[in-house]
Each structure stands twice: as C-alpha cells, then as structure tokens.
Amino acid sequence: xxxxxxxxxxxxxxxxxxxxxxxxxxxxxxxxxxxxxxxxxxxxxxxxxxxxxxxxxxxxxxxxxxxxxxxxxxxxxxxxxxxxxxxxxxxxxxxxxxxxxxxxxxxxxxxxxxxxxxxxxxxxxxxxxxxxxxxxxxxxxxxxxxxxxxxxxxxxxxxxxxxxxxxxxxxxxxxxxxxxxxxxxxxxxxxxxxxxxxxxxxxxxxxxxxxxxxxxxxxxxxxxxxxxxxxxxxxxxxxxxxxxxxxxxxxxxxxxxxxxxxxxxxxxxxxxxxxxxxxxxxxxxxxxxxxxxxxxxxxxxxxxxxxxxxxxxxxxxxxxxxxxxxxxxxxxxxxxxxxxxxxxxxxxxxxxxxxxxxxxxxxxxxxxxxxxxxxxxxxxxxxxxxxxxxxxx
Length: 393
Fold this sequence. Notes:
Layout: H1 4-7, H2 10-29, H3 33-39, H4 44-68, H5 74-91, H6 99-126, H7 132-160, H8 163-182, H9 208-234, H10 241-257, H11 268-286, H12 291-320, H13 324-353, H14 355-392
Helix pairs in contact: 2-6, 2-7, 2-8, 3-4, 4-6, 4-13, 5-6, 5-8, 6-13, 7-10, 7-12, 9-12, 9-13, 9-14, 10-12, 11-12, 11-14, 12-13, 13-14
C-alpha cells in the first residue's frame, strides 16, 4: 500500500504546483475578462464568443495531443502549453478586441488543451494502477484550491490596480507554470496493449461511456454555476457565493480525507453512489428556498462530485486498457462538451419554465447518467461472460 509520502513524490508536487498556476490564471480571468471586454465596448455576443472560444480551441486540440503523447513526452507539451499561456497573458495588455483578441484566446485555448491533457497524463503515468483514482483526486485539489483563491483575488487586483496589473500577474503566474513544468523528471511510459490505433484514430472508443457520464456531470455543474446565483438572489439571498465556497470546501475535504475510498478495486462501488448523490442534490435544490437548504445542497454536490470525476477517469483507464494519453484526451474532450451544452440547454429550459423546473431537469440528467452507467457496465459484463464461454469451447 502506498503511503502519502510515496504518493507525494517530487514530480507529483511539481506537477501539482504547475497545475495550480495553470488553473489560477484561468480563474483570475474568469470573473474579470467579461468586465474588461465590456469596458472596452464589446457587445454581449462578442464577449460570449471571446470567452467561449478558449474552451472550443481546447476541445479541438485535446484528441490531437492525446495521440501525440503516445510517442512524445508529456513534459514537452506541458512546456509548450505554458509558453502559449505566458505569451497570451502578456498579449492581453496590448491586444484590443475583437479579432486580434480572438486569436489570442485561441492560442490560450490551445495552450489549455496542451497543458491540461499532458499534465493529467503525466500524473497517470507516474502513479501505480491501483491508486490512480486517489492520486487523480489529490491532483484535482490544485484546481479546487485555485478556484477558491483566484477569482476573488482577480477582482481585488482589478479594483485596486487595474487590468494591466491583472494581466501582469497572469503572466508571472504563467511563468511559474512554465518553470515548474521544466523541472519535471521523466516517467516510464506504459506500453500500449495491442495496436495503438485499433481503438480509433483520435478518440478512445472504450473510454467513451465513462466520458459521457463525466459530460453529464459537467453539464450539471456548468448549468449550476451559471444559473444558481440568479436563482438565489431572486429568493432574497444576499451572498450566493457562499454556496460555491461550501461546495469547494467539501470538494477539498472529501478528496483529502476520503482519498482512500477511491482506491477500491471495483470503481463502480464509488461511481454509483456518487452519481446518485449529485442527482439527489439537484432534486433537493428544485424544492429549496432558503440559504441553509442551499448550503446543504452545496455540501451534497461537492461530496458526490469530489469522488465521481477521479473514479470515472480511473475506470476509463482500466476499461480502455491501452496507452493512457488517448484515454485522458477523450475523457476531457467529451467532458468539455458539457461546458457548452449545459448553460445553453438549461438557459432555454429556465427561460420557459423557471429555475426550480430547470434544477429538477438537472436531477433527471443525473438519473439518466445513473441508468446509462448501469446499462453499459451490464453490457460489459455480458460481453465478458460471452468471451469466457467462447474461450472455454
């Protein structure tokens, strides 16, 4: 059994810090970039395009990076992604909207896809198979902690010093991400099982079912973060941010204190209850009207989501049984679709039915994910039984 001392190696700590810097830049810009663009006279449509194109560029680049990582070093793509991030952060100071800044956002989005896919693959290849979900959960803490610290820091920087200082801080933090990536040591790549291209040209087919479950979870999360503040304020809640603070705290506590839970050999024992908890949380939110109930829902969702995503990733890696990089790329590329579809689809639902109905629909998305997970794991069991029966003939 691995102890915390053996799990938290020098390479893991460096990758963790680089990932923390990477997410911090993203979170510094998340609440401030729309304000900056609005100040420069951009329309709501232009702001939406400039904010959303980063995710689109990342989504397109991930499968390409995943295939390239089967032969190239993860460290190389992390460094290239960090360089893109550093240059784009610096370019914000001088580049005006719309078209020049659109190019900058595309470059940063490609850097996002390069770095995040490579860093996750690096951690996967550095960890033992039996502890992948646990170590991925610990690694995700870098993003959770950055999500707590960076957004309010970005607002403080803008209010006290202005946008130029914000972009300079993003440049410095990106440089730290580049420095940390450069110090990483090599990892021993696992040999792919069978033909590396037999599972599809860019995407890993066997990683698709757990990736779709992740898409559903991210669909719910993106919709929740977009529309809960509006719902809460309509109910007289003065500080909707407490909801996300409680959610972040539960994510951190669950992954820190409950990391061993994800080490179970049968990941379905973690995934089933995690999906159920997230679905129940959204169902409760549909009928919640007060701040205490809102915070209880946040605690529930944070707990379920904390265990679900790392366990799904580990399950996808086990199910694919091939080189990790295409699996990681497939998992996150498919998951990223939820970032676009969630607010888009649920925005239409909320517009015509109201927020409570919208949250109930999100609960149904969770139930659908539970049924889909049962269906494809049951089908896997039948396929395995058929193969064993044939081999015994």
